[in-house]
Amino acid sequence: MSKRRPPSQEAFEKLLAWLDPDCDKAAAKYERIHTRIVNILSARGCWMAEDLADETFNVVASQIDRLVETYDGDPALYFYGVSRRIHQEWLKTLRPPPPSPSPPDSLDKERLALCLDKCLKRLATPEEAQMVVRYHEGEGQERIDNRRKMADELGITLNALRIRICHLQARIRPCIEQCVDEGDR
Amino acid sequence: MALNNHQARLREYLLGKLGEAEQEKIEERLMVEDGLFDEFEASKDDLVEEYCADELDTTERQFFEEHFLRSVEGQQRYKFVQAMSCLQQLQPAPIGAAPPAPGLPVKNPGPSLFQGLKDLFANQRWAVATATSLVLLVVVAIIYKQISPRPAGQTFAFANILKSYSQNRGTEDAGPTRIKLPPNIAFLKLRLQLPKSATSGARYTALLDDQVNTKPVKVVETDSQSATVIIPADLVPNHLYAVKLAIVNPDGSEQEPSYRFMVE
Fold first, then answer.
1. Which of A160, B129, B221, B261 counts the highest number of beta carbons within 10 A?
2. Closest by alpha carbon to A145, among A153, B227, B219?
3. Does A113 contact B87 at a Cβ distance shorter than 8 Å?
4. A47/B71 touch (CB, cutoff 8 Å), yes or no
């Protein structure tokens, strides 16, 4: 994969303005597009998704003058198109992938559980933490029934509960990663 | 849960069951549709959970391992489910298999750390409000046991969270915390609520006192409210014990709260 130079400050500002004339909205759109590219590339098995998303933004920034003049449509789709090409480039220069995750041993599991506990306390309200823990209670049908009961109690659909839990977990995951890494040092 | 069309499609996408053109179509929509993107994220959580529970078939499992789980994001989600399943798996499966210790605030027979965590979060506000006069001792007992091998590596079992009160600081002593240990326990983990006067940056050491001898035990974690120690189970046959915590504050002042517990 060829490395492009990061955009100049001027190009970067033009790119933000292209996303939205309002600075705050532009920053939010930038973040949203970046996250989506990372998550799509991750789903495709790319273990350098963050790097490739950064690369995508560099490429788009390098074309910004032309895009402002000629591109018609949602910028997110243009970013996506560029990210696809960059991903294809990356696939051609592929190095051996990292190993698939192996089941953690006893100490890893203990550390993970401690980190989860710590991060729930740090990042979630007691009610949210209780909700996440309860959501994972039980196995098989018992778990499904448990989730249905939770949704009923909250007065929301099962799918709304699922999405709510997904957002909560997304907040907590990076903290667990950091906590485990700190334990490794 | 029955899957709606979106969910089913996203699931196929994540498991590599769609052609390139269909994948591209979904990805374009993911870039611009917030609702679909939320579904996408939740579907990943579902699949990681199913992967860890060995509920995917061989082909799905292999594809998921070789794609999403190799990404940084996939590994983070995998770790999260492992951490959560670690707590969840360690709930005693058969109801009534392990009776609760008498007088303990547990909801189910054979309470677990999982249950205890729930209780802790539920009672956190109360605990903060009443901590001014009584020091709360939260005891987390973790039981490790080997269970039949599964891909997710289920090697733990958990006991429960217990509450008691410490002695030795002029506060009322409510007696030792009673802990009932199942026979296959490997370690006991105790989370000791720190006195209010403990300050951040303090150093901690701990001794297990069996009323005859004292042995050092490992302080594995501390935060602003508690210190956690791990004690090998073979050091605590049924008997009365105390963990003596030595706290050296950054200003050089020292405290030595003691936490009594009875193993039954």
1. B261
2. A153
3. yes
4. yes
Query: Does B21 touch chain A if contact means CB atoms closer than 8 Å?
Result: no
User: What is the sign of the dihedral through the CA atoms of B102, B105, B108 and B110?
Assistant: negative
DSSP assigned state of B70: G
Phi and psi torsions of B89, nearest 5°: -65, -30
Which chain B residues are closer than 8 Å to A115 by Cβ?
83
Judge whether residue B261 has pLDDT over 70: yes
Query: Is residue B85 within 8 angstroms of chain A, CB to CB?
Result: yes
Q: Do B1 and A163 touch (CB under 8 A)?
A: no
How confident is the model over B186-230, as pLDDT tens digits?
667 777 877 766 677 788 888 888 877 887 887 777 777 778 777
Distances (CA, A) of A160 to A28, A50, A135, A163, B52: 24, 29, 13, 5, 23
Q: Which helix (H) or strand (E) holds B144?
A: strand B136-144
Q: Provide the pLDDT for residue B114.
A: 54
Q: Which residue has better confidence, B7 or B143?
A: B7
Band the pLDDT of B48: cuts 50, 70, 90: very high
Mean pLDDT of chain A: 89
Average pLDDT rounded to a whole number, residues B234-248: 83
Set of chain A residues whose Cβ sits within 8 Å of the Cβ of B62: none
Question: Rounded to a whole number, what is the distance in Å from the CA of A139 to chain B's nearest CA?
Answer: 9
Kindly determine whether residue A45 and residue B68, on different chains, have CB atoms separated by under 8 Å. yes
A130 and B155 within 8 Å at the Cβ level: the answer is no
- The residue of chain A with its CA nearest to that of B156 is A106
| Residues of chain B neighbouring A80 (CB-CB closer than 8 A) | 27-28, 31
Q: How confident is the model over A78-100, as a mean pLDDT?
A: 87
Higher pLDDT, B103 or B86: B86
What is the helix (H) or strand (E) element at residue B13, kind and residue range? helix B5-14
B36 to each of A36, B7, B24, B31, B166, how far by Cα in Å? 11, 9, 14, 9, 52
| pLDDT greater than 90 at residue A150 | yes
Instruction: Please give the ipTM for the structure prediction.
Output: 0.87
